[in-house]
Structures are given as structure tokens and as C-alpha cells.
Amino acid sequence: MSQTITVAHDIHRDDEGSKIGMWLFIFTELLLFAGLFIVYGVYRYLNPVAFHLAAEELNVTVGTLNTVILLCSSATMAMASTAIRMRKKALTLTLLGITLFIAFMFMVNKYFEWKGKFGHGIFPGSEDLLQLGHGDTLFFGLYFFMTGLHALHIIIGFILITIVAVRVNNNSLTSENPVLLDNSGLYWHLVDLIWIFLFPLFYLIA
Amino acid sequence: MSNQETETNYVSFREEKGKYKGILAWIFSTDHKRIGLLYLYSIVSFFIIGVGLGAAMKLELLAPGKTIMDPATYNAIFTLHGVIMIFLVVVPGLPAVFGNFFLPIMIGAKDVAFPKLNLLSWWVYVVGALIALSALFMGGGPPDTGWTFYAPYSFKTNTNMLPAVLGAFVLGFSSILTGINFIVTIHRLRAPGMSWFRLPLFPWTLYGTAWIQILATPIVGITLLMIVGERLLNIGFFDPALGGDPILYQHLFWIYSHPAVYIMILPAMGAISEIIPTFANKSIFGYKAIVISTLAIAFVGYFVWGHHMFTSGMSGTALYTFSFLTFLVAIPSAIKVFNWVGTLHKASIQLEAPFFWAASFLFVFMIGGLSGLALGALATNVHLHDTAFVVAHFHFIVFGGVGFAFMGAIHYWFPKMYGRMYNTKVATTGWLFFFIGFCTLYLPMFFLGIDGMPRRYYDYVERFHGPNIVSTIGSWVMIIGLIIIIANLIKGAYSGAKTSKNPWGGRTLEWEVDSPPTLENFEEIPVIERSPYDYR
Amino acid sequence: MENHNDSHIVPFKTYGIILAVLIVLTLISVAVTQIDLASLTVFTAILLASIKSGIVLVYFMHLKFDNLMMKIFVTAVFVLVALVMVVTFLDYNYR
Lengths: 206, 536, 95
Known about the structure:
The complex is a heterotrimer. Chain A is an all-alpha fold.
């Protein structure tokens, strides 16, 4: 076994392969939420009126605000991919920083939104919710479950982008190997993509 | 992966010195072959536990009334038997063991695309298994819902549902990681010249399987999470008292769990497609038909989940559609059977243990498949639903199909994996016991089912006694066969005669590397200029 | 090695335009759903969400610059999800 082959094996690197792998993982995430969208669809179909009325309980302004800022964070994340390729380290870090800040703001909004609902006695399994009837129970059950799972993805994305930012900062992620940044970007856009569907389903169709 | 000291020729991956020593050199190895063997040892251990539980059930059914256990224990045992056999043995089964070991070699690669992810998938598997099995030892007792965790009972029962459900959820991740790894490996790491239609059939079936793993597993993941939500937060997704629909649970569960059957059977078909041409010494008949039928099964198999729910109260339209699609998915499976039989036609066959397993696979798979059509037809399904007939059917497919293919695969690739040969006569004897025992065990259950004996009952009326005795005796014969097989393989691994690179005369790439292979499989990446099965 | 990343660099301006389009579409969907279009409301909201997600996939997620295989995969996954929903509703719609 020649040394050259050993070396070639150790530095095996395949950015295209990593990207395909990330996309495949994104497919699994899409299917994960697809299961929930099926549940939502079925229960909306079975309880049209209750879902309609329950959706009016949610604050459209907060929802719209969160949608817009999340779209902005997606744009800054995508721009970071461009910036790193143009070898602009400071700009890349700034864009990543804005993304992280928006992710944080999104969670703050979410926190106050959930807190408000809890304050009104609306949370999974609560007495008040059970008295509202079946449709409302299911609507808010799905609301908390789906936005909660989405928030979990925001947190994971936050951690991922933080790691990317640290690595850009210490020069271990540069224009030579931007694949981790690109893949974190793909993940962040997925988080955005899911919110694009969650927003109308819970806030708008009222 | 440290591999500096490999100057001497033929240091196999088993003797390779790495960073760690002893068992650590295995459980922290990113070598696809070591991971394959790790999976082999874990899966076989769980398989033996599962067989033990199954044997206990058969013993209970030896006579009407209480034989050795009470009804609650029986419920727990069939649940654990199902959970262990499905999630820990058959779903990872062939892809994780032989896929990991042979996929890179068969496509001319040095390893899978993401070796670290591969090791992680094994660790996730072990953690998931431990979580699932912890249900046995905690207060509340083992779960008693059956492996399907049907709502609403799964969140009403006081037994330890959470560990079992969470364990299955974690195991899903392991399955997904393997799937991602295999797809990227097949796309990116094929040797130069290995076009898609020069890919051997086992990698092809792994490719189809990997897609199902990626696209179906998340659905059961989210479903199991919802069960967790039901139990912990009382959300009401599937609770009729809160407006939920238990049938929706069944939909979601089977959207994964039916494709999961194809996760199990496709690689089994792939292994059979490797064994048969080698022992027939003849090119496989209709290579493209097998490839296309593999992809067709993977696709259509995604839309037949409803045939598990024919008596649950679905709409008529759904019933007709699912029944039609079920018959449709039988066609590509039948095409493969014709291909295998066509390969054997006018061939000069070597009668060796792997071939016996492959030939008996054809036999049991046919019985399993055709009985599946009886269940796929709406009218007969109403009569046979949840009877012993169903149990016999899916054991012929899952145990007969996947289990026989697994046995065939391990006897076929054993010399390559260990560099030694087992005693072939003993292997054939073991197969004979196993095969006879298997048929004696499960064939009577078809008749019991038609006669109306329900599944999952620990008791039965007197007139079912005769076939049940036959069936239980069959289980003993089968276990004797299993003991012979395992003992023979273990002995072969330690003290069998050393083998050459290509003991069977196979033509695919794994027979061109050393037995056992070196750490990097190939000294230099081969260039492929022929089809994988150019025997004559 | 040819498999190292040399993908197309998208200018910042493009992302700016895309972001503007997405925000406008969001505001349109909010406005449209405030008017009572009866059964059309759901349809419009979902349609606009689909357009938005398409734009995110094509531009932010770089599908436009990916090879044909990736485009087929992504399309196929969405078709698969749609088919699963259709088949599920074969039950609920006709009960």
C-alpha cells in the first residue's frame, strides 16, 4: 500500500458529497414536518369552524413581524455565503451576527407570544383549553407542538451558525472550505421554509 | 484513521493497528468493515433475545389455557418480540451489516462517504436499543401494546411506553444516518467506469432502501413524538375524548411502517441477486428489469400503507385505492422472482450452503407473497384480519424473506469477512433443520388463521390444539437448526481453513480484494470496464 | 480535485431583490386574508406560501445553480409529500 494513496485517503474531501448529504438531511426534516402538516390538514378538515375561530386568537402582527425578520435572516445568511467567497471576513462575520441576532429576536417574540397564551390559561392539557371544545384543543395542541418543534430548530440553527461564526473568526473556515457555512445556510433556509407554511396556517387563515 | 504502519502486504482490517487497542479499536473505528461487524454482533445478539421471546410464546401456545405464563406477561412478550425484531434486527439487518461491509467494496471505494457519521449511526443504534430495552427493567412493567403502539391504548396504558417509543425514535435516527451515507456514497464514490448500469444489484437495492429510510422514517419519528406529547402533555392528537382521531395515528404509523417492510426486503432481494448468479455460474437474467423493479417497489410501496387498516373504518374510496395499489406492488416483486428462476434455467449450479438459503428464500418468499395477496383483497381481508394467518404471512416475508436472505448472505460473504471457511456440510445440515423447522412452525398458522384463531391471544379453544402443537414443535426444530448454524459459523471464524480471494467464483468486485480485505480495500482504485455479472 | 466547491457566486443585489419580493408577498398574503374570500382564503394563503417557498428554494438554497439531479430530487420530495396528503384525504374526504 503506497504512502501516496494513504495520504490521498486521509484528506479525502468532497464538498459536493457534503452538500448532497445536507440536502438529504433536509428532506428528512421536511418529511418530519410533513407528518404534522397532514395532521393539521385532517383536523382542519374535520373542525373547520373551530379552527377558523381559534386562529383569530393569534396575533397577526406578531406573526407577520416574525415572518419578515426571519426572511431577512435568511437573506443575510445567504449573503454570508457570498461574502466568504469574496474573502471578506469582517463582512461575513457581520452578516452571521445579524442572522444570530434575528434568530434571538424571533425567540424573544415567540417567548412573549407563548407567555401571553399561557397567561390566558391556554397551554396543552389545560382546563380552560379543554372547556373550549375539541377543535380549539386540537388547534392549540398543534400550534404549540408545531411552533415548539420549529423553535427547537431555530435553537439548533443558532448553535450551528455560532459554530460557523467562531470558525470564520479563527480562520479555520475560509473561502477555501466554505461548505460548512453553506450547509448551515441550507439548514437555516429550511427553518425559514417551514415557517413560511406555519405562518399562514396558524395566523392568517382565520 | 491512522494507517502509517502498513508497509507489509496483506494486513487485513482485522489486524490493523490504530490509535486504540482491544475493544476500543472496534467501537471507535470509522472503518466501514469494522462497523459492519459491530452491527453484525449487536444485531445477532438482539436476534437471539427475540428468538427466545418467540419461543416462549410458542411454548405458551402449546396447550390451551395457561401453560407457562399469565396473559399480561404474554402481551409484554409479543410486544417486546415485535419491537426487538422489527426495530433492532430486521430494519437495520442487511443494510447495516452487509451494506456497511460490502457497499464500498462492491462499488470500488475505500470507505463510505461519511465514515464518522457511520460510526455515529452505530452508537445511536446502541443508545436507542438501550433506551428501548430499559422499558423492561423500570417500574410499571414492559409495554403491552404490540410493536405498533396503537393509539389511544398506547397513551392510556400504565406500562413503560415512553422508553419503548423514545427508543424507536432514536433508532430511526440511526436508520436515517445510514441512508444518507449510502446515497451519497453511491452517488459520489463509484469507481471510474462504474456507470449506474454497471452497479451490482446489492448496491442498487441499498440505494432504493436508503431513499425509503430517508423519506419514511421521519414520519414515524414525528408520530412517536406525538405519542410522547400525548402521554406527557395530554394534547389530544389521537384521543377521541379530546376530538382526536385514532385512525389518523394508524395512517401516520403505517405511512412509515409499510415502507419499512421494503426497507427490510429490498436489500434481502439484493443479496439473493448476488448469490444466485454466483452459484448458477451464469449472468443474472434481466439485470435492468431487476433494477427498475427495485425502484418501482420503493416508489409504489410508499402508497400502500392503508392495507393494514382495511377493517379500521376508512372510506370506501380509500379501501379500493389501497387494495389496487397493493396488487400493483406485487408485480415488481413477482418480476424479480421470474428473474431469479430465469437465471437458474440451464445453469450449472454449485450446491453449497449459500445457494440452499437462496433457493429456499424463493420458496418461502413465494408463499409469503401470495398469501399477501389474499390479505390485500378487501373481501378476504375482512375474514383474515388480525388472525394467525397474518402472523404466518408476515413471518414468511420478514423472517422467511429477510431472515433467509440474511443467512444466505452471511454464508456467502463469510469467507470474505473472516478469511476462513466454515464447515460446509454442517452448514447445510443446519440449513435443513432450520428450513424444515421454519415451515413446520409457520405453515400451520395459515390454517389456524383461516379457521379463525386470532393473533396476539394467549389462549385458544380446544379445536385449535392440534396445529398449535405442530407449530410449537416446529419452533424447537428451527432453534436446533439455528444453534447448529451459529456454532458452525463461530467455529469457522476461529479455526476454519484459510480461504482464497474468491472461493465461490463470484464476479463482483468484493471477490477481487483480499480475504479479509485490507483497511483500504483496494491498493489502487480499480477501473471498471465490464458488467458485474459477465460469467459467460 | 474537480469536486471542490466552485459554485456560482450570487451577488448581494440579487439577494436584496429576492428579500424584497418575499416581504412584499408576505404583506400581500396578510392583506388578502383580511378580506373575506370565503373558501378562496385558504387557497390563496397556501398558494402564496408555496410561491414564497419556491423562491427560497431556488435562490436562497441555490437550486438554480445546482445540477439537474438535485432539482429533480427536491421536486420529487415535494411531489411525494403532496401525493401522501392526497392519498390520506382519499380516506377523510369520502368518509
